[in-house]
């Protein structure tokens, strides 16, 4: 039940620290070693390429998963929209392994890809929140997200659970492959930091109500920008905001705006900039300058180590590859408050259903 909450979306945002702790407890032993079914670890470790398929927010979690798998296992990883791959099947490597990310486990677009994979004898793993769901039953293996029921149409805690679970699997597989980065990856500690960091952000949620009121609700459009892993979060932040607030929002690789889209920046256009990537932090600052000088109202969401005096939101420290676990939370809260301030039904945006069982 919603308890004292007006909407499930906020309840589910608030539950994320608990989800991080549960995943750590259930999938990592007291020494931080992954507790993942050995058959799954072997199947993934044997692959020469990982293919992740999903839709919507789960697809965005897959984009983060790509970086995690490549960093900690060294296995090249591709991410595709299930809806596209189903009818334009990608060229396969010799030993492909498919991962399906799906909160509901019922997404029709993903089922099409899995059917084709089964026809071709490709090994598959479903990461889902729903035990016994269709994608779980039809795949060779399942790993559960353990996020608890997600009721709001806008997905929040399933996204962070998918990232944490992919990190756990990446560490398990990487260790099996004797990957040094995987061995050095103190995931138990990092997930504890993530839980604390998310808690700190949600404890300060009033700030996001203010920012949403000041910058977003009167605007008809908005942009999220970021580079590296922040680009993936920019896409997710944009989906969340447009989905529940009806403010048309696009996520961009920060430097791409100037190749066309910057012509949409007017006085007061909200641009939300994400900075966690050490390699490109200064370059993103340059992109902020470009839009500011054309009138944009910029909100900065920045990892502590990159923070400057005037940044709007400063995120606690976390491993770069897990930084989306923190960065996404302000984007969820901005979306929530923008929708709520506009008087919309936050949990049930128009035209949408919780799980999309048609192609
Ligand atoms: O249940 P699934 O994770 O397969 O659902 C995929 C998308 O339909 C879902 O993430 C959708 O994009 C959400 N409404 C986004 O908040």
Automatic annotation (TrEMBL):
TM ranges: none
Listed under catalytic activity are: D-fructose 6-phosphate + L-glutamine = D-glucosamine 6-phosphate + L-glutamate
Q: Superkingdom of the source?
A: Bacteria
Sorted alphabetically, the Gene Ontology cellular component annotations on this record are: cytosol
**Active-site residues, record numbering mapped to chain:** 354
The alphabetized list of GO BP terms reads: carbohydrate metabolic process; fructose 6-phosphate metabolic process; protein N-linked glycosylation; UDP-N-acetylglucosamine metabolic process
Domain (SIS) spans 40-183, 211-349
MF terms (GO), sorted A to Z: carbohydrate derivative binding; glutamine-fructose-6-phosphate transaminase (isomerizing) activity
Q: EC?
A: 2.6.1.16
Q: Which of UniProt's keywords are assigned here?
A: Aminotransferase, Cytoplasm, Glutamine amidotransferase, Repeat, Transferase
Per the entry, what this protein does is: Catalyzes the first step in hexosamine metabolism, converting fructose-6P into glucosamine-6P using glutamine as a nitrogen source.
Q: How does it assemble?
A: Homodimer.
Task: State the name under which the record lists this protein.
Answer: Glutamine--fructose-6-phosphate aminotransferase [isomerizing]
Q: What is the lineage of its organism?
A: Bacteria, Bacillati, Bacillota, Bacilli, Lactobacillales
Encoding gene per record: glmS
